[in-house]
Amino acid sequence: MKRFWLALLSAIALIGLLALPSVSAAVTPRVDLKVLLVSSGPGADGPLQLAAWKETLDAMGVPYDTYDRSVSGPVTSAVLQVSADHGKYNALILTDGTIMSNWVWTPPGEKEAIADYERSFGVREVADAAGPASGFGLDFSGQQGSPAALGVAATLTTAGQQVFSYLNPGIVVPYESGLYMYLAVPFYDLPLWNGWGVTDVTSFTTLVQGPTVGPGWFGSPVAPSTIVGIANHADGRQQLVTTVNSSDWTISDKLLHIGMLNWVTKGLYLGSWRNYFSIHFDDVLLPDSRWSITGHCTPGEDGCTATTADIRMTPADVTRAAAWSQANGIRLDVVFNGQGATPSGAKGVKKGQNDALTTALLAAKTKFGWISHTWSHEDLDTASLKTIVDEINKNQTWATANKAPMNPAELVTGGHTGLSNPVTPTALARTGVTRIAGDASVDPAARMLGQAIVVPRHPSPVYYNVGTKAEQLDEFNWIYQTDPWVPHPTSWNQYLDLSATQMLGFVVGNDPRPFFAHQANLAEEGVFYDVADELLVRYRAWFSVPTAQPTMTDAGTLLMQQAGWQSALTAGQVTAYIQSGAVHITATAPVSVPITGTSIGSVYGPLRSGWVSVSPTAPASIAVP
Ligand SMILES: [Zn+2]
Question: Quick one: three-class SS letters along 504-557?
Fold first, then answer.
């Protein structure tokens, strides 16, 4: 990666004279709710941070403009404001934070234009990967390099625990070894350096601190180093400065960007964020076939001649599932096939009197979510309208007779079949289904199918046909044996590492799509629990805020809102600004708008967020608390 421009440190650069705050005009200023990402182009510092911030803002649905200085020239007032009473951005994120460093040359007037805008409109700034420059009020320790080489175990200060209050206060921020970091400390006597004109920063608040370093180049004594902190300037401006770079593949950014965005927007922005973790278990009540470790195949598939015993949950597995769910505060959704309640095929057995699993599951029915998986798991790709309707209705009838609390509007078809069957929309309309599951690995976007929303589900890293760790490991390595891009785990712990990493990427990605596994994974060795426990251990090491668990119905609504909002943003259909203590939103087409920091929605982490409907005839004005 390109280093910060440390070479330019040749002398103590004097900062310019401070402009006086502008006298407020008669017109109440308007500031648009939009973020400006400033980059210095691919040849300078910042492309990695730019990619990281775009990923964050895209995932959260935050509107932004990108300004590339290498193409469009230095940032001027015209870039930032329409007039003295109309600012275009409520937050500035400098993906190349060195722009504002006194160690770095920029075209005349550029630093001043940015500072003037922030001062006039009360707008904050993130100076990402800005380095340890004296202008930020930072003294450099001389230590720089990869976090691993520097021995960094970065932690949150008390102030950091407030800005990043959704994180575990004891978190060790997982800065990846591929990053480049400078260790700095705030000047030991800021008013002194202020008086000498070295900096106009009056105080520096460290949020993320690293190892103790020092003494600094300017004589700061040995002290805990700063990696992320807030520089408070004499004129009231505030910068959040980081001394480490980042990238779209870094987990450290996924963790910290949320708090940085909350801070830089003063907690008010379009967009919203949750960590989601919903999990479905398909084929409940039915048996699943079992992978053969000796034959490397599954009986019934691809001409497999091996034989194995099927896998089916027992009453003890129901007890274990309910206990795990309660202990972890995670709802497990059973996606059931009523036909499995009569495994012997006996006619007239409606309440599972003959089946211990059915009895146990119904006894614990209120401890799970219930979703229909059709009556018999029939392949619906070429099924008739009557067959599809029967498969849906029979399962619902069974659930109703047994008082299993399913929502008849939700449906998962066997193997996600029937989604391209031309009669399926009619079948869904006749049975009142408004949510139908899809496979996110082949069909990732939510869409309409007749009256129903297709809710894509992420395959979990445990296969439908395994009840033991050995089976899971063997099948994974057999499938990917010739794929050089996929790791080949030789131990269960390695497999857990892979699985938890993959799932966490979705959980922390503001992604309401549910995961799906199978009843086999709750049976025997319970391979699901190992994977989920590893996932949750890691999650809780990072986050204090629990995961949100939307139902399939809510997930469908959220996914369509997210999709509709993205198209409205792309089409430029929405204008939002803050003026006179209220947010004003107008739209040229009806759209649901995500908003954080008002009275709309529910509290998640430090802020309240939700969705507000706006149309050309019904703009929204929301008071800012
Ligand atoms: Zn199934």
Answer: HHHHCCCCCCCEEEEHHHHCCCCHHHHHHHHHHHHHHHHECCCCECCCHHHHHH
